[in-house]
Structures are given as C-alpha cells and as structure tokens.
C-alpha cells in the first residue's frame, strides 16, 4: 500500500498499476506510468510493481537500450472488439507515418552535417578572407593609379594584374556559391527564410554592402594602358 502525495488516502499500488496498464493497453515505461497516475504511486514503487507484474506474467517486459518498456499481456485479454482492433490499426498507421517522416528529417540533417563538416572552419575562412582582402586592396590601389592616367605599363605587369584579377574573381564566386548552397540546404531543413537565417547567423551579404561582381571585374581603365610608342625616326 502507498500514500497519495496529499496523504489523504492509501491505495493498493499493484492493483492501481495493473488496472491502468490493462485499461490503456499500450507500452509504457515506469516514469510515464507514475506521471499518468498523478502521484498516486511513486516512481520507485511503480518500477518495482512493473517488474513484479512482468515476472507474474501479467505484463510483458522489453528492454530498449537502458530503458524497460511494459505492456499488458495480450493473451489475458478476452474482450478485444473490432473497435479496439481498428483503433490499434489506426495507431499503427500513424506511427508508421511518423517513423517515415522522422527518417527523412534525419537524412536531411545528416546530409547538412556532412556538407558543413567538409567546409573550412570559421577561423580558416576568416584567415583566407583577410588575405584575399589585402590582395584586393593592393590591386585596387594600383588600379586607381592607372585608371585616369595615360601611363606606360609593362605588358608583363598588365598580364599579371589581369591574371590576378581573374583568380580573385573566381575565388570570390566559388566561396559565394558554397555559402549559398549551404544556406539553401539549411533553410530547406529548418523551414527558415534565407534572410532570417542570415540575420540569425550575423551574415552580411555583398549586396547589402553595395558590392557586386560588376565592381569587382571593372578593371578596364577609361584611358589606354597600352605601352607608349616611341616617335618614328625620319
């Protein structure tokens, strides 16, 4: 016998638990049974009673990992009606759908995790970004000197500048694409809009800062950068 929390009444713990398990006819662990009985039987006693009832054959016990699950012994039921069977079948179908949905969500999460784990870390990205920014600044400084002036430039130097610019444009596009693909995958799995995702992660886009691809590749000066030609000899 055990007392209620309010101490007003004693109950037959084994009888209460057995009647509850028979009436519900569903698998439960000790914690759920104790909670659903609203404290009439404490968790420690429920755990003991479930163990004893399974040993008597009134309940069936199944160990799931570190947890024990119990349900009423179906062989002791004599009044399974068509309504009960339909209810159980409906419940089975619901659980089947839930299982399928959970598996799909798990696959998406695993795919997202695989993509993210293969990318550079934040520290590595910041380091590369700093290096690229420094290189871009140097190129922009050179470009500003050349843009509005008619100057003589070594063809090799010009070719190198154009090649460097092409490399940095390609790197910028690649990193922008990686970020976009990862962002779209995260929004698909979370249902969050991409603008909200960027806001949550504190990401500022190039467009928000007025930076576009056109500006990055606008290296052609207004005046010619061709080497000056010497005066022809008479």
Layout of strands and helices, then pairs:
Layout (H helix, E strand, L loop, with lengths): L1 E2 L6 E2 L1 H12 L5 H7 L6 H14 L2 E6 L2 E6 L9 H37 L3 H26 L7 H36 L3 H8 L11 H4 L18
Antiparallel strand pairs: 1-2, 3-4
Helix pairs in contact: 1-3, 2-3, 4-6
Pfam families: LZ3wCH (PF18517), WHD_TBPIP (PF07106)
Subcellular location: Nucleus
Organism: Entamoeba histolytica
Walk me through what this model shows:
There is one protein chain. A hairpin with a 2-residue loop joins strand 3 and strand 4. Helix 1 packs across helix 3, helix 2 packs across helix 3 and helix 4 packs antiparallel against helix 6. The chain is mostly helical. It is rod-shaped. The longest helix has 37 residues. Helices cover 62% and strands 7% of the residues. The N and C termini lie far apart (125 Å). It folds into four domains: 64 residues, Orthogonal Bundle (Arc Repressor Mutant, subunit A), CATH 1.10.10.10; 42 residues; 30 residues; 64 residues. The C terminus is likely disordered. The strands form two sheets. It has a two-stranded antiparallel ribbon. Strands 3-4 form a two-stranded antiparallel ribbon. It contains eight helices and four strands, in the order ββαααββααααα. Its main location: nucleus. It holds the Pfam family LZ3wCH.
